[in-house]
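Lab channel / #folding
Pinned by the channel admin:
"Please post every new chain as: sequence first, then the structure tokens as a reply. Keep commentary short and put observations after the output so the thread stays searchable."

First post following the new format, from NK:
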Amino acid sequence: MSAATDTPVVTRFAPSPTGYLHIGGGRTALFNWLFARGRGGKFLLRIEDTDRERSTPEATAAILKGLTWLGLDWDGNVVSQYERKDRHAEVAHEMIARGTAYKCFSTAAEIEAFREAEKARGTSYPVFLSPWRDADPSAYPDAPYAIRMKAPRDGQTVIRDQVQGDVTIQNATLDDMIVLRSDGNPTYMLAVVVDDHDMGVTHVIRGDDHLNNAARQQMVYDAMGWAVPVWAHIPLIHGPDGKKLSKRHGATGVEEYQAMGYPAAGMRNYLTRLGWAHGDMEIFTSEEAMQVFGLDGIGRAPARLDFKKLESTCGHHIAMGDDAALLHELKAYLVAADQPALSEAQETLMLKAMPVLKERAKTFPELLEKGQFALASRPITPEPKAAEALDLVSRGILNSLTPRLQNVSWTKESLEPILNEVAAENGIGFGKLAAPLRAALAGRTATPSVFDMMLVIGRDETIARLTDAAA
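Reply from TO:
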């Protein structure tokens, strides 16, 4: 049985809180978010915290923080899988009543002895056949038991996957999996299905490392007579060398990318294109992606992380970003990177300089680097290379320039003729005058244009910096 096609779309992201939000998990969440939002559906968040030894509140907080930075909002409250364990147990017992599951009293020692005997016979993957599958309930001992699902003994289970195509599993390879342990705790396979069903999930979009789980989980749906969701198992992300992404390739956690200074909009754009395509669409907003994102555009091959492509994409988004929004995100980056905050005066100047700075910056560190002239305070101490431009002759030229800036209209159209006149009077081209001006205004050799800097910091600060340098 499959989920009805006219049912409102409900997707979910269900991470385990055992560490940070991996970049692959971030992309999975993004795909679910785009698919639901683009169809007027719901995007739900469930924390699969049944592993009590490894699950931590800190990891849950890190996951929520990573999703929030990426700009992925979810509907309703965050669901805790652990808190639903009574509901999972209830379903396991309901399966017994339906005749699709049974009580198994086999001990761990008996199961291990069976497996060892099968291995001795040369069986590669021994499937445990419980003697309690068809036992008379009157013969049940007064002992702890697990609840096992009755797997089909013959035939095939077909996973109709929207990305991988039809995947066929021989039922003879599937054992009667445990759905409720002897200590009363549900297994992951049961909990996932019960939660997805109760939450109304219509589309399960997740990494293809879960593909093998789908056959077992589909049997739970069938055992309960529930509609099977649409499956979509997406390939994992690999490093540039084609191997599974790991720390040796660089950052793997979403929060690391924020601390490295990538803008969230650029990150969303890049991750959307990492394994998904729509014609020649490369640079787009999330709203545009929602309109065209579909499961049919997801490729089957693992995607490779390309940091140059990521930087290029982020550069486009910084360039087309709203100035105030960029300043807001820049401030959040400084917090994430454990950098000093901007003063109110620096914020004002950075906002004023943003149209100049954002055109060629690919990350927030680059934006800050280009904006150092606006962040600096007097006296400006030039870097060694820039200081070379402030020789005795150049300082004399700057000294002759400052009086002419006192009453001129503070626009590029008015400033440009004056600077050109001063250069001509001293027998040099404007390029030769620009070097000492950069050193005086920013203390650096690589800066935005001299006129842009003068307009941002204003007349009084410009004259003061030139006077300092001339002296």
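NK: The chain has four domains: 10-75+189-238, 84-188, 247-371, 373-470.
TO: also worth noting, Residues 344 and 470 are 29 Å apart (CA to CA).
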